[in-house]
Amino acid sequence: MKPKIIELPKISDPRGNLSVIEEFAHIPFEIKRTYLIYDVPGGETRGGHAFKKQCEFIVSLSGSFDVHLDDGTQRKVYSLNRSYYGLYVPSMIWRSMKNFSTNSLCLVLSSTVYDPDDYLRDFSLFLETTGLNS
Ligand code: TYD
Fold first, then answer.
1. What are the residue ranges spanned by the domains of the chain?
2. What's the gap in Å between 99 CA and the centre of ligand 1?
C-alpha cells in the first residue's frame, strides 16, 4: 500500500464537530500505540527515519505541519492542518515532519508497540534495505 491521505467521517453539529478513527474501518491496521508530538519549537524537525515494520496514521489535531515522505525514488510533501483527515504512512518510507505552527498538536497512531530496532535512522541504510541503491 502507498502513502495516502485518508478522510475521516465528520459528524457536523452546531454543538461542535466529531470525527472518528476505528482500526480497519478507517485505517488499514490495528492500533497498538498512540503518541503525541507537541510543544515543537519553531523551525525544528521531527522524524528523519523510516520504520522496517511499523505503519502509521498521522493527524494534525491542532495547528499545522508538513510531513515529508521519501520512498527512495520519490519525494512528496503533505500539509496536515485539519482533524478530519490524516496521512497513512506504510512501513519503509523515510519521513520527516517540519514547519510546525505555534501550538500544533500531532497525533500518531501506530501499528506496533515501541521498538527501537524497527527504526532505520541512516538514509543510506534505508536505501540499502529497500534494495534501491544496490
Ligand atoms: P523518535 O521516534 O525518534 O521521535 P521523532 O521521530 O518524532 O523525532 O522518538 C524520540 C524519543 O522518544 C526516542 O528517545 C524514543 C522515545 N520514544 C518512546 O520511548 N516511545 C515511543 O513510542 C516513541 C515514538 C518514542
1. 4-130
2. 19
Cα–Cα distances (Å) from 64 to 39, 58, 68, 115, in that order, read: 12, 12, 13, 27
- CA–centroid distance, residue 12 to ligand 1 (Å): 34
Domain spanning 4-130: which CATH class is it, in words? mainly beta
- 68 beta partners: 77, 96
Are the C-beta atoms of residues 57 and 93 closer than 8 Å to each other? no
pLDDT band for 133, please (50, 70, 90 cuts): low
Q: To which residue does cell 520512498 refer?
A: 71
Catalytic residues: 49
Q: Is the pTM of this model over 0.90?
A: yes
Ligand 1 neighbours (beta carbon < 6 A): 33, 35, 37, 46-47, 114
Count Cβ atoms within 10 A of the Cβ of residue 86 and give its class: 0-12 exposed, 13-18 middle, 19 or more buried: buried
Ligand 1, atom nearest to 116 Cα: 15
pLDDT digits (tens, 9 = 90+) for 18-71: 999 999 999 999 999 999 999 999 999 999 999 999 999 999 999 999 999 999
